[in-house]
Amino acid sequence: MQRHPARPPDLPPPAPPDRGIGSIGAGPSVAVASGAMNLYDATVPVFTKLLSNIETWIDKAAAHAEARKFDVDVIAGARLAPDQYPFVRQVQSACDQAKFTVAKLTGKEPPSHPDTEKTMAELRQRIHTVVAYLGSFKREEFAGAEERPCSHSWMGGKSLPGGDYLHHFALPNFHFHLTTAYDILRHNGVSVGKMDYIVDLPFRA
Amino acid sequence: MQRHPARPPDLPPPAPPDRGIGSIGAGPSVAVASGAMNLYDATVPVFTKLLSNIETWIDKAAAHAEARKFDVDVIAGARLAPDQYPFVRQVQSACDQAKFTVAKLTGKEPPSHPDTEKTMAELRQRIHTVVAYLGSFKREEFAGAEERPCSHSWMGGKSLPGGDYLHHFALPNFHFHLTTAYDILRHNGVSVGKMDYIVDLPFRA
User: Fold this and answer.
1) What number of other Cβ atoms are within 10 A of residue A20's Cβ?
2) SS3 of A160, please?
3) How many domains does chain A contain in total?
4) Residues of chain A numbered 150-179 and touching chain B (CB < 8 Å)
5) The domain containing residue A65 runs over which residues?
6) pTM (two decimals)
7) At what angle do helices B39-68 and B87-106 cross, to 10 degrees?
8) Would A80 be classed as within a structural domain?
9) CATH number of residue A191's parent domain
10) Where does the pLDDT of residue A27 fall: very low under 50, low under 70, confident under 90, or very high at 90 and above?
11) Which B positions 98-127 lie with beta carbon below 8 A of chain A?
12) Residue A11: pLDDT above 90?
């Protein structure tokens, strides 16, 4: 994934390698220019990476299904409780949350994606569609997004400033569905681990 | 929960109530003064609310256990897979992630909390301890946190700027453990739903 080019070049040095727990005392607090923080960075690259990564999970589910001689789409319909969404709907929900979040933060009308997928192959297509949509956003479109009033159909007309919308609603909701999709695979014996969730960290050093 | 007092008073009006899906076209993009976005808002109130809310889940687990005549601490040890952390360790991990995140973003040394809890009652105490620690942080301590180099013991000495640390690592990790704790309850028949996860949204209007 490309990092955006807007990082200033004169950053403080990273924590030295003998400080395994990191930044503690590693450097002074850095005053940054307005605009260094932009909700693009908190959304588009994160959603793109994590949604794309579901395909790795589906690959592992397919390998598991093949080894055990069952149809991987049985897992597409698997749930952790009878009144909970199955895997396919968890992935659809994560896709929708990503789509709605970037649209609302930038004041756009999101496209409609009917939840018609039933198979892992169809879920891959849904992921590609949403990732392509995320790729159409530009960093500058998120200027001021942290204060833009954002709402959701079940908020009864009430709204939150974009920063609160993101951290109190959108990211919890996105990770809620993404982790539950992961947990459904985990419960069904697919060999996923946390390092299949926390992937491709954009280290600076 | 108290909202921080630093919001500028001259905000745009919220979306009108007849725009159920929210901000689309509801107002212009708003340029905000530097400092309006502060990672305190993305961490301390969110972690405090969501960790405290686990007690509501434990209350529901206790009611379920009492109705079915089993010891609720059986659920404290429940897992979704034999090689996955049980509920108690998922909650401990979420507590630790919250603690480490606010410490690293502000350049502090976090306190050590040995993972000795085995019961729901002990988990409640662990939550209280971490929530009290979160409450000791002030918004101004997060100035510049988005660019502060942050690391974690398993990053091999590498670091991320605080904003990336938060959105690529800390929040995914926090919600990963919190949602898995939730999913363990859900799988064991406790009557929790998504509205027990996405709680107390700080609506502006």
Assistant:
1) 13
2) strand
3) 1
4) 150-153, 155, 157-164, 166-169, 171-173, 175-176, 179
5) 44-198
6) 0.84
7) 170
8) yes
9) 1.20.120.450
10) very low
11) 103-104, 107-109
12) no
